């Protein structure tokens, strides 16, 4: 589960990136680790997920919100940068 608030609070159950556009390299921090590390991210991602009522959603996110979602999905998949 990913929970985020980008002005609209939402929980994403089993989120998966369905499409990703415009890759770039960035430097990220994480509450799980000390320091910052490089990471490959995408400027725009289309994400498929279930809400708390198990209704499916497909939404497109961009910018910093897209980066946060990618970071959190990495955690769900066992990846810690």
Feature tags:
single chain, alpha+beta, Peptide Deformylase, four-stranded antiparallel β-sheet, globular
Looking at the overall shape, the CATH architecture is: Alpha-Beta Complex
Fraction in beta strands: over 45%
CATH class: Alpha Beta
Helix content percent band: 10-25%
Low-confidence stretches: none
Please identify the structural class as seen in this structure. Answer: alpha+beta
What's the short story on this structure?
This protein is 17% helix and 63% strand.
Structure description:
The structure is a single chain. The chain is of the alpha+beta class and 81 residues long. It has a single domain (2-76), classed as Peptide deformylase (Peptide Deformylase, Alpha-Beta Complex), CATH 3.90.45. Helices cover 17% and strands 63% of the residues. The chain has 1 helix and 4 strands; from the N terminus they run E-E-E-E-H. It has one helix spanning 63-76, and strands spanning 2-5, 9-30, 33-50, 56-62. It has a 4-stranded antiparallel beta sheet with strand order 1-2-3-4, covered by helices on one side. Strand 3 and strand 4 (56-62) form a beta hairpin. It is globular. The model has no long low-confidence stretch (mean pLDDT 94).
